[in-house]
């Protein structure tokens, strides 16, 4: 794990803004860093062993009000990948802790209609501290979700994939929900009012 860094320090007053220092890949994709914050249910102790039935995952509301996601943002040229991930996590979610190594992986996603895309570098963060006030606390809500339920609440498919990679690394594959075949994802069963929904 990485060193705890600024745990216990005063909360940052504001989030970084602008993209003057933003890093890009050789083909112009925006480089992003983020975390999947976790804890053992109701605790922020770093010494408590992880159990799949006790792990909770932190999700934050998107600023546009559409769904929930993991904290992430631009990796800038004056910081390491790990420090960027921790900075974005405290700015968006108001938590600090220890980053697990190695990194979960990299995940590509589209960043906008005119963007060539983004590449997200994702880590797991073992939470040790929750701030009462943080830079985006007036814009976002945070929620601790049982690990088994977190994937279904993620707005973005690539974030679900990142979470599933970590779950597989921990050997907890029984928590991964099987994908619904495309042919069934748009089918509604009206018998007894039941509906089959796609895994969007």
In short:
Residues 28-167 form the Nudix hydrolase domain. It is built from four helices and eight strands; from the N terminus they run ββββαββββααα.
Oligomeric form: single chain
Question: Globular, elongated, flat, extended or rod-shaped: what is the shape?
Answer: globular
Report the CATH superfamily.
Nucleoside Triphosphate Pyrophosphohydrolase
**Beta content:** 25-35%
Examine the secondary-structure arrangement and name the CATH architecture: Alpha-Beta Complex
**How many strands?**
8
What composes the largest sheet?
8 strands, mixed
Contiguous uncertain segments of 5+ residues: 1-5, 184-200
User: What would CATH call the class?
Assistant: Alpha Beta
Structural class: alpha+beta
Distance between the termini: 33 Å
Global Rg? 18 Å
How many domains? The number is: 1
> Helical content, roughly?
10-25%
Q: What number is the mean pLDDT?
A: 86
GO molecular function: metal ion binding; pyrophosphatase activity
Region (Disordered): 1-26
Keywords: Hydrolase, Magnesium, Metal-binding
Cofactor: Mg(2+)
Explain what the structure shows.
With 200 residues, the protein is an alpha+beta fold. The protein has one domain (30-193): Nucleoside Triphosphate Pyrophosphohydrolase. The chain contains four helices and eight strands, in the order ββββαββββααα. It has helices at residues 81-93, 147-153, 157-169, 182-185, and strands spanning 30-40, 55-61, 68-69, 72-74, 95-99, 105-109, 118-130, 142-146. Strands 1, 2, 3, 4, 5, 6, 7 and 8 form an eight-stranded mixed beta sheet that branches. The radius of gyration is 18 Å and the shape is globular. It starts with 29 loop residues before the first strand and ends in a 15-residue tail after the last helix.
